[in-house]
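quick one, 234 residues, struct below
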Amino acid sequence: MGAHCPQPRIYVALDSARQVRIQALLDQLDPSLCGIKIGKEAFTALGPAVVEMARQRGFPVFLDLKFHDIPNTVHQACRAAVDLDVSLINVHASGGRRMLAAAREAIAPAPGAPALIAVTVLTSMEDADLAEVGVTDGAAQQVARLAGLVAGEGLDGVVCSALEATEMRQVFPGRRGVIVTPGVRPAGSAPDDQRRVLTPAAAIQAGASSLVIGRPITGAQSPGDALREIVASL
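---
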């Protein structure tokens, strides 16, 4: 693991492809309390400009594009992501060892470089979903298998369910290990399409270093207040 940007405790997931909506949301959030996760919807609609919108306001950015392709393509994509001055980049661990190595080689281990993490098993997937694609020994075993591969190639951490965070902290120990957990919902929130979930405080206690939270903040009447309440709960 290299020296990389410090990660915020919370990344707020943008949930829109509309520039006006994103600008309004960014204006309501405090960059000292969170980073911004930019995924496929916003990036496909607005491109690198959406990263610049967040960076201009001082937000750390998690570029959540989950690169998964042949090694050279992923290498070049990671190099392009570094040029966007983001704090966190991810790939799919199921792309395999050579792809992970190519991604790692694209990011120089310099102070302030983005952290590079890998998705193990999507938090929307349960054991039955994995069985349909040929993974018959369940989510926990698949997460452990892929995490070992990720650690072996020198990546900084993983994206995993909060339910696997404690085990992942053993694979990526210490403050430099980056454990990012989506599927986090404050008590009383709807689970939406997530299946393996914990509350924010429980996820941090389990070993997560950064939480990805979307609709409980972005869908709130006051996103800024919702963010502050979650931060206070930690």
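Confidence is low (pLDDT under 50) at residues 191-196.
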